[in-house]
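User: Please go through the entry that follows and flag anything odd:
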Amino acid sequence: MDTSIVADVLRDGVGVAIKLAAPMLLLSMLIGVVVALFQAVTQIHEQTISFILKLIIVIAVLLIGGGWMMETLQEYARSLFELMTA
């Protein structure tokens, strides 16, 4: 196995990890900012509001995009197994 192949596999792995984590992270960050602004305006400083909303968003993203995430991960795993057998 050549070092360029290893570098490609690592780059693809990082790309897949970013692709899978980005929707959850970006939406939870957006909700965090919106809730922080709401709490600053209303002077309600309850920490569980932000946590519960982020948890709901992450669960919703997993329910909606879980199939796509699994397919993406399976494609990457298949490509790794194909490289091992080649």
About this structure: The helical segments are 3-42, 47-85. The first helix runs from residue 3 to 42. The chain has a mean pLDDT of 93.
